[in-house]
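Fold it.
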Amino acid sequence: VLSSSLPRLVREFVAQNNVSQIKHVIQILSQEFALSQHPHSRKGGLIGLAACSIALGKDSGLYLKELIEPVLTCFNDADSRLRYYACEALYNIVKVARGSVLPHFNVLFDGLSKLAADPDPNVKSGSELLDRLLKDIVTESNQFDLVGFIPLLRERIYSNNQYARQFIISWILVLESVPDINLLDYLPEILDGLFQILGDNSKEIRKMCEVALGEFLKEIKKNPSSVKFAEMANILVIHCQAADDLIQLTAMCWMREFIQLAGRVMLPYSSGLITAVLPSVCGTACSLHCLHSDIKEVANVCNQSLMKLVIPEDDEMDEAKQSMTLPAEPTSEESISKPETASSGESPLVSASRALNQPLSFPCSSERIQVTLNLDGIVQVLDCHLHDTSIGMMTRIAVLKWLYHLYIKTPRKMFRHTDSLFPILLRTLSDESDEVILKDLEVLAEIASSPAGQTEGHGPSDGSDVRPGPVELHVPARAGQLSSSGMKALECSPSTPTMNSYFYKFMINLLKRFSSERKLLETRGAFIIRQLCLLLNAENIFHSMADILLREEDLKFASTMVHTLNTILLTSSELFQLRNQLKDLKTPESRNLFCCLYRSWCHNPVTTVSLCFLTQNYKHAYDLIQKLTIRWVGRNLLLGLEAKMRFTRLPILFLSLPDLRLQLLDVKNNPYLIKALYGLLMLLPQSSAFQLLSHRLQCVPNPELMQTADSTKPSAGFKRTTA
């Protein structure tokens, strides 16, 4: 009856323009049949509504609300056959109405998204046919309401059902392909959901999502000026830290493009970006998957690109200028206390962001905003990474590179954080990696030599170490400790570069660390000091350390430390210039340095003799050796095995000095050199050092044999030869 008489009846009403009767027929089909308690009646009602729509033809658009609602209700029917008939009925209704159904798109999409996960294969097949039809209509129409659709898409994109996810991704791909639909404007609304889907267990869904994200990224590269980079920054930060390799790699690739395309727009989110990138620099956050190397490579590119965004102008921006710029990332307290507003409830991103203290309140546009470097947040992140002992070597190096870069580009602002960073930088000197120590020394050297460190208010917090004005490399004199002449002797050479107030603090704390960690002194002490002599002024380093050690209460440590410094001074290529400066003692500066070193070198008799040999004070060296003979041998006050070992190494150090070896040829003018060496030989026990020195002294020529005719009459001999 419905299939034959109903269409004829409806067509008659259409011809008569009898709207009330048409609505009455649809109401009867809906209320008494489609929504009936009896399955057969519901089936008949669905068939009747489809037949009515076909009979209405182009006029069906006037009654779509009444036609669609009862059919959609049947989508939730417990009987799978009725759900299939509902799909079939809606297919016929949509096919007739075509573009007229677009105002009802959201309810249709909502119903289809549920049927996409239907367990019955027939229902799923029917929903796929309806889905394709609806996609064709959207593609060919220019009246699609994207603004009204986005809230629903944002809600449904967080579905965990595989079929629903596949349905969502397929629609995103369709909408992205339509030229008249600019889905890129609303990408921040759905980007987090897309990354969630990218972690699906189904390879097919992951591939579809990867394609969708790839299409969006292509569009971003084509139209960077219209992209809301800032609104998506923290989304990428979160997913760059994902456990899934594909999610992490994709998010990292997006971040790389964002940094390169958006530039300094990303600066307010730099602390979060660094948090995401640094663990991946050495791969600690990655699994042993084949994507591991790709993640590491992209992370390094991101890190380098982000560092380039920091410029010297960031250090010159005054407070008034900053107050007019884009606010930086809020503090943890602000991000927790500030309520989040969302049009469709709290998404998983909000929860994750709150857990990470990441703000989700973005500026409306990335354009026309003057951005500011969030230096406090960056330093806090870097400081946390340095304190984390579980991070890898490459990450620690990356952190130190960041600190060095910030001290170079923004020294004035960085020195506000130096007091908090200084202790951990000193502790990092105990790292197992030489590369980490080298980079750490570069940072400490920059702190110790930067002119910004001398700015008022940026000095060290320890008042005892503060030096007003140009820093003199000596400890402030206590009452009655030094005479006025002694004070003058301890002053820094005016020819050396002026160090800031952190230089002396660095020297004091470095020696304290060597004192508390003797193993560090034994294994890395010489290495650290030699590198510092390359990075800073060697004379200042030796002058200041000698000055500090002069008042060291632990005499054993002072002796050990002086011995280490002496060995470096005699043998290190980095100290070649300083050795030359000490050889002649012709300038006031070199004599001043010698006096400063001599006082501290007296902590260790062996080093004192060494310094005299280096500075060619051979008579004084001979006198000291005589004292050693009386005190060490005569009174049997040797300092044990350690002192003996140092003493036996002394000839090796002396004979490594080429000037000293050549002066052995001039016996007549260097008698105290020969005497001192023989005195030293007498003190040495039988050892390889004894044999070495003895063999060298046997090569010293007889003064009488060195006399020649030419030497007695040089002028006459020269004239006769030339004649």
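Residues 121-140 form the longest helix (20 residues).
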